[in-house]
Automatic annotation (TrEMBL):
This is Beta-1,4-glucuronyltransferase 1. The keyword Zinc does not apply. GO terms for molecular function: glucuronosyltransferase activity; metal ion binding. The keyword Membrane applies. Pathway: Protein modification; protein glycosylation. It is a single-pass type II membrane protein. One of its GO terms (biological process) is protein O-linked glycosylation via mannose.
């Protein structure tokens, strides 16, 4: 009887074991949600526990949760399956869409809709509207970890390469973070020149790379390498249309109130439940905006789980009002000193105080009906984008009420440093546009509040 050498037999056993493992992975792919046993279960608007939890810590930290990796083979499987399940943008026809008012950008509304977005929009009085370029989108998982409610997200895609990056990264987020898949709805804005920008990848995707659910920023950085020099050069020459994006995100909301933020502004834990309870009692239906104070948090700190823990961070120098050192007028009128000294029920939202010292260039993050003035789309890039809209609200007679104990955070203590030339150029260009804008709104509302424009 013929017998295999002992070494060959071992090799055959190892090969068979490896084949069995591959078959098991194929049949039962590891599409598990990420959980964090140390964090509390987030709750929905009725106060009930949701089925899945997601990390609540700073995305730069290593203690976000148990490690989970997926091979790009599985990711490509999800990309292909998206044609059937509408999981991502793979099934979206980008050859048509509606134009913006200036015919500069093509828009695809509701390109991907969260699986529970319609139901959540009926239950929640507030929808979070936010916008992002492809580079900053890694912040969305933490936003979604704290905001267990409807989210309308506007994305900017400069050319086919960025569209491919968005396709992969949105798939990654929907796979790794349950609340992104459940409640985040995405809209896309393309430049008019989209078809003349790179139409295919100059090199194939390296499928040896693993995508780690613990680190969205690292995953996105890898995907951004797909962009060629031509796309990056176009981005340098063309400013980011911030106000177009804000208007797109706002109009994607289906709830009564809109909470308009930037992508890297993280809401406080359980704020959806608290804010819904508050807005059930609100009787101001016109010309009211509700300010959510924003703080900078040192990346060495953990995300504050309450106003009390936020106060403790401020005393240690690990947190401070947003842009306090960079540009104080940005948030100064909120009166953080008054907000921090207010003590009350930490779980019930109330009005801390009314903004009485309004100054031009004030640009708080606020909740209001979507009947507030639109963001003027003449202002693009940096400078006069948000504050021009808030200024118009003030001229129109809006009152700003500061809420407590809810808050928002931005990671990193901002440092004042020389602005790059391109940013200062955009700011100067928008400053020139502001004179005509100011004249228009004074004529529209027949009101000149005599605020000194800095």
């Amino acid at each position: 009887m013929f017998r295999l050498p002992h070494g060959s037999l071992i090799k055959i056993v190892i090969v068979l074991l490896f084949v069995n493992i591959l078959l098991l992975v194929k049949v039962y792919p590891p599409y598990k949600s990420v959980t964090n046993g140390s964090s509390r279960h987030p709750t929905n608007t009725d106060g009930e526990k949701t089925k899945a939890t997601v990390p609540l810590n700073c995305p730069y930290h290593s203690d976000v949760g148990p490690q989970m990796t997926m091979s790009t083979t599985n990711l490509e499987h999800f990309i292909s399956e998206s044609n059937k399940t509408k999981l991502t943008f793979a099934n979206i026809d980008i050859s048509y869409g509606r134009w913006d008012n200036q015919h500069k950008y093509k828009i695809k509304d509701f390109a991907v809709v969260g699986e529970q977005y319609t139901e959540s929009s009926k239950i929640s009085l507030i929808c979070l509207a936010t916008q992002s370029s492809v580079e900053r989108l890694y912040s969305l998982p933490q936003v979604a970890a704290n905001w267990i409610g409807p989210m309308s997200v506007a994305l900017f895609s400069a050319g086919n390469e960025e569209y491919i990056v968005l396709k992969y990264f949105v798939t990654y987020m929907r796979l790794c973070f349950p609340n992104v898949k459940a409640n985040a709805t995405f809209h896309i804005l393309f430049p008019q020149e989209y078809e003349s920008l790179p139409g295919h990848l100059t090199e194939p995707l390296n499928i040896q790379k693993k995508f780690n659910c613990r680190n969205p920023e690292k995953t996105l950085k890898f995907l951004l390498k797909l962009r060629t020099a031509k796309t990056l050069e176009w981005r340098k020459r063309n400013v980011y249309p911030q106000n177009h994006m804000r208007n797109l995100a706002r109009k994607g909301c289906q709830s009564k109130y809109v909470f308009l933020t930037d992508i890297d502004i993280i809401p406080s834990v359980n704020s959806v439940v608290q804010l819904n309870n508050f807005f059930k009692t609100v009787d101001c239906e016109k010309n009211c905006a509700y300010v959510i104070p924003t703080f900078e948090i040192d990346v060495r700190a953990s995300f504050p789980q309450s106003k009390e823990s936020l106060l403790a961070l401020t005393k240690k120098g690990l947190a401070r009002p947003f842009h306090e050192k960079v540009f104080i007028y940005n948030q100064y009128a909120t009166n953080f000193s008054k907000w921090l000294t207010l003590k009350g029920n930490e779980t019930s939202v109330s009005i801390s105080h009314i903004v009485t010292n309004f100054e031009f260039l004030y640009e708080p993050f606020y909740i209001a009906l979507d009947t507030v003035p639109i963001h003027d789309e003449r202002f693009t890039g940096y400078g006069f984008t948000r504050n021009s809209q808030v200024y118009e609200m003030y001229v129109a007679g809006y009152k700003f009420y500061v809420l407590s104990p809810v808050f928002t955070c931005h990671w990193g203590l901002q440092r004042k440093q020389a602005r790059p030339a391109w940013r200062e150029q955009q700011n100067n260009a928008n400053r020139k546009k502001f004179d005509s804008f100011k004249s228009e709104i004074f004529a529209r509302y027949k009101n000149d509040p005599h605020i000194k424009v800095k």
